[in-house]
Design brief:
The complex is a heterotrimer of chains A (181), B (580) and C (273). Chain A is an all-alpha fold and 181 residues long. Chain A is built from five helices and no strands. Chain B has a single domain (39-66, 74-244, 257-565), classed as Up-down Bundle (Cytochrome C Oxidase, Chain A). Chain B has a two-stranded antiparallel sheet with strand order 1-2. The longest helix of chain B is centred in the middle third of the chain and has 35 residues, at 261-295. Chain C has 273 residues and is of the alpha+beta class. Chain C folds into two domains: 8-121; 128-267, Immunoglobulin-like (Sandwich), CATH 2.60.40.420. In chain C, helix 1 runs antiparallel to helix 2 and helix 2 (40-73) runs antiparallel to helix 3 (87-121). Classes of the chains: A mainly alpha (181), B mainly alpha (580), C alpha+beta (273). Chains in contact: A-B, B-C. The complex binds protoporphyrin IX containing FE and copper (II) ion (2 copies). Protoporphyrin IX containing FE is lined by residues 52, 55-56, 76-77, 79-80, 83-84, 88, 144-145, 406, 410, 413-414, 418, 470-472, 494, 497-498 of chain B.
Chain lengths: 181, 580, 273
Amino acid sequence: MGFMESIDLSPGEESRIRADANQTLVAILMAMAAMLFAAFTASYAIRRTSADWIPVPFPSLLWLNTALLIASSGTLELARDRPVHARRWLRATLALGLAFAAGQILAWTELAAAGAFSPGNPHRAFFLLLTAVHGAHLVGAFLACGAALGRSRSERLGPCAAWWHFVGALWVYVVIVLRFF
Amino acid sequence: MEGPSGGLVRMSGTHAAGGFWTRYVFSRDHKVIGIQYILTAMAMGLVGGALAAWIRVQLAWPGSAGISPEQYPSLVTMHGTLMIFFVVSLALVSGLGNIIIPLQVGARDMAYPFLNMLSFWTVLPACPLMLASFFVPGGAAAAGWTAYPPLSALKGAIPGSGWGQSLWLLAMALFIASFTMGGLNFVATIFNLRARGLTMMRLPLACWTYLVSSILGLLSFPALTAAAIMLLLDRHAGTSFFVPSGVVIAGQVQAHQGGTPLLFQHLFWFLGHPEVYVLVLPALGIAFDVIAAFSRRPPHGYRITVWSLIVVAVLGMVVWGHHMFTSGMNPYLGKYFSVVTLLITLPFAAIGVNLVASLWRARLRWTPAMLWALGLISAVGTGGLGGVYLGNATADLHFHDSYFVVGHFHFMIGMVTLFGTFAGIFYWFPKLTGRLMNERLGRLHFWLTSLPMFALFFLMHLQGLRGMMRRYYEFSQDYVAPVLWLQPVLTVLAFVVFASQALFLINFFRSPFRGESAGPNPWNATTLEWTTPSPAPHGNWPDETPSAWRGPYEYSRNGNESDFELQSAPAAPGVLPSKR
Amino acid sequence: MDDRSPSPLSLAFPLALVILAAAVVGTFFLLDWRLDVASEHGRGVDQMIFFLLVCTGPLFVAGHLAVAWFVWKSRWRDTPAYLPPSPRAEWLATLIPVLLIGAVAEGGVLAIGMPVWGQVYREEPDTLPVEIVGKQFEWIARYPGRDGKFGRTEPTLIDDVENPLGLDEDDPAATDDIVVRGALYLPSGRAASIRIRSLDVLHSFAVPVMRTKQDAVPGLVTRTQMRPTTPGKYEITCAELCGMGHYRMRGYVNVLTPEEFEAWRARQVGWFE
Ligand code: HEM
Ligand SMILES: [Cu+2]
Ligand SMILES: [Cu+2]
């Protein structure tokens, strides 16, 4: 019953309170994103049982993208571990994230060329939907970590790193759903 | 100590910031934002109420209201949507929540004041957007507040499914975004900004209900977000998430293929059911606080209530299927949803019983806030017992989509929430303005609103027992004939309710200037908001924020000189505030 | 605020509550809300509702009287007399009414409700197969004909006058299907297994006097079952918003004696005959 225990704060602990609040915020945002993707997954599971479901070939470029995003989580952890080089590793993280985003756009155009934007096929519709909604969550990760870069002190990376990793994990989940189900 | 009194949102004290625009318009002060929400909700409430009155004229004297059968579903849809999302959600949850939470937890403001401001300015444009849909080709959305596809997905299915439904979805998207930002702030504020010594088990019940309600809303709105995105794609991008193959509208076979309408219903009600708790629970929390203050004793069973709230919320997320007993869902699922739904009666009844038991050995003070809280007990009891009928899958074979349902949900999300809102506004009004609302007008408003409302919505239950269906433009069926004579009666009652809101408006807008001045603690209440001057200044406390040394409801303790003890009153010199 | 002289409200309010409770109970006896019932499971549904009325009625009255009583008592108390109850007493005061309500709610649905629910949804052996199809804004009934099989339908074949259900002429099973617009004919005493479809949006096949209600969902065949008990003509209504004509989407269930029903069926010809 941790959260029901007494909290005992001495005055002037503003910044600790702020950090705690940020943590609460990110935890709830994660739970919300999880609910959102749970709703999409449930829809996916129901929709795929209908007769017109034809799996779209999985663009192999996405494997590379996945690797980039996982690597970016690694560099972000390095940034957290080494306060001295934090900004350098943070820049690397953002670069890897941008590369991922570029790769995603490339994969979309590839699919578009193959006629994926014709709306008839439900698997394609889900493909676009899930990658797009994931992209929207990635934008949030960019904003959070970009802001951390802008600030002079990068020690308080906790909440934004948590969101970045979460978005990475979300992507792995999306890949598993789209590729294997 | 008495603060300067004056205009509705007049601020004072050392923390006052900025000029007119940053103080009253683009304000980040939670109290100003709360008032902005309430004013917005009042404006939308006038529209929603006028729609209800207009609908009632058509129902009482068919054809005399100038409503055509094409327009009727639009009016019902917009009435429901406005009332739930733009009146009750904004006034009770966003509005009063904003006002109460930081003050009760002893914080200077919300955890994220800018986000808070953004939240209001996101929902504000949604209001004209929603209302504008009356004036677009085809008229406003007409698929019900539930927006079930295919009706809401196919433009030809009903006139309002063209432009109107698109605007509806857009306005709802803004609403969801705003409500999410608001909820995040509520939760972060309650979890992280509590005063020293204010443990969770010393939190006033109003705060507890806002906490549970916010978490519940945050976790369930994503399902509606997902459904709305897919519905939008079905409407505009040619996908088929919800529209099946072979739908024939006006002789035309539609291009959509393979979707499942029931999927939308599941997603919608995954939000829709928790949403009613999101609205109802804060009203209950306010009732607990108000009843404690005006019965001069602690509420019965604080801990039982807190745990019941949590159980209600958890169970509330797994019972959405009780809106779908007759939908064609697997009958075994129907059994499951029925049994689990009726389990909620246990914690919910515990909360209700605790409200009643809180009056045992009370010394009542008959303020209008107390009248509303007592009226709320009657409404929540009656509405709750109605829920026992509707959660019963077998009985629902008769009640589904009948006026029994209309009567029931008006008791819960109409009466309980409005009664809670009125109680809250009367109770915290002095904290915002430094003045009291007029009691005589308040009492008159109470009687003229609560009794006709009870009669109106109770009689709807009986029409529902007779099998009268909802969302009907008129009733030509023979089997309902014996209860149709009630229609004009209900309409007259509705007009009394609608007209008596003028009393409230007069009171609300006059009292900031003419009301009796209130001291910092006009009700001799105990929680932290009553330790600061009225009106509470920008930053809430002129100097240090208070600490909590004791529980939230120390009324009528034996052996004490006064009959209440502020939460911030030290137990003894030198003792640190700590756990009870 | 003067606490010494009791406010007139401490008399008016409890009185209002008592009158309210009495009025609510009274309306149940005065108003004509009772609807005939003409199906077997419908009687079960009514028993379920009756059970709830009988059990929740006293709870409603008791709750209102309790509030009225506590409020009334507060009239004479002018010194703080509140003593916190022991945790045990507190628990008991909450638990007893809660268990009572819980027992009514769960006991009712488990003991009375579920068997009736089963009657509606279990597959019985010797049922009469019929189909009812909703479209904006009309009910169309179909019988499988002599072969006992429903023929194929195809949305593209639908023609509002010539072929409202889009029956496929090339399917031999479809030739003898009987189509009746706006009315369903059923024999009394025999359970009808009703398959329900929709051609366009959601509808709900509702026969209030039968206590039958089942949504018509496009893309899905839903099912319900009823055994009419009394011959007569009963109204079908629509219980799911389906468009501007929702309120006038009507039809009739004509319940005939078994002999009359056989005679009626013998007179019908298949759609393509
Ligand atoms: C005097 C006040 C009110 C009156 C007379 C009134 C009347 C009505 C009526 C007659 C209907 C049913 C129309 C039909 O099915 O044909 C209705 C529907 C509805 N009302 Fe109210 N109402 C009032 C206040 C409220 C409030 C405060 C709420 C707050 C949440 C509310 C929420 C709804 C909703 C959600 C619907 C369902 C809309 C739909 O079917 O899509 N109403 N109201
Ligand atoms: Cu529900
Ligand atoms: Cu209909």
